[in-house]
Amino acid sequence: MPELPEVEAVACKLRAAEPWCRIVGCGQFRPTTMQGGGRAIGQRIVAVDRRGKHLLLRLGNGCFLRVHLKMTGNLTVAQDARMHASTVRAWFALDDGRAIVLDDPRALGRISFHEKGSEDGLFAGLGPEPFDAAFTLDHLVRAAKATKKPIKLLLMEQKAVVGLGNIYAAEALFQAAIHPARPAHRLSRPKLEALYTAIREVLGAAMSSAAMAYERPGEFSEGESFPAAVYGREGAPCLRCAGTVRRMPQGGRSTYYCPKCQK
Predict the structure, then answer these.
(1) What integer pLDDT is reported at residue 3 of this predicted model?
(2) Helix (H/G/I), strand (E/B), else coil: 108
(3) Whole-prediction pTM value?
(4) Disulfide: which of 21, 81, 146, 154 matches 99 by Cβ 3.0-4.6 Å?
(5) Which residues are catalytic?
(6) Taking the chain, what is the end-to-end CA distance rounded to the nearest angstrom?
C-alpha cells in the first residue's frame, strides 16, 4: 500500500499537471470504486491536498473528493478524456478535454464525495502529520505511554502519527535501534526521542526517493527507490552490526528487523 511519501509524490505530480478545470462528467467501471462522484460535476478543482495516505481534490464550493489508493492505485491526469487504459477504474472529465483517472490494477482504490465542513469528522481518528508542528516528541511519548501494544503496531495505526506503513515503520525502528515487538509503554524517553528523529528522517528521505521514482514512466510502487536497511532483506547481513536480518509476522504483515542491534 502506498505510504505517505508515495501519496505525496502522486499529489505533487497532479499539482504539476495543473488540473484546475471544471469537472464536466465522471464515470466508473466498477460499481464499488466511487461513491457520489456525480455530485462533483460542475465544480472546479481548486487544490490537491493530502491527509495521511488520503488524497483530497478540493472543489470550488468547499466540498472535496477523497481518494484512497489502497494497494496499487494511481491518480493521474490523462490528456484525452475519451481514452482509458484497461486498468482505469474511475474518471472525471475536465472542461479542457483532459481527465483525472484512477488507474488501479487490483481495483481496490476508492473515491468518495464529501460535503464542506466534513473533513474534521472524517479524519478525527488520524494523528498529526509527521512534519507538522503538532507532531512533537511529547506527543509521541504520550501516545506510547498510553498503550501496551508493540511499538510497530502503534506506528501502523495512524493515531500517533500518520503516513507510516509497513516499510517505513520498520525502517524507522531500525534506525532508532528499537525492537518492533517492544511494548510501547516500556520505551524510555531517550528511545522515543531517537524514534521521533528517525520517523522524520526516514520519511524525509523516502519522500525524495519517491519523487524521483515517480518521474519515470510505468508502474510505481512504494519504496521502490528507497535504500531499505531491513525491509525485504530477510537473511541478509545487518548493515549496522553484521547480524542477520529476520522477519516475523506482526499485525498480519511481515516485520523485518535485526534482533542483534534492535532491543
Answers:
(1) 87
(2) coil
(3) 0.90
(4) 81
(5) 2-3, 53, 253
(6) 27
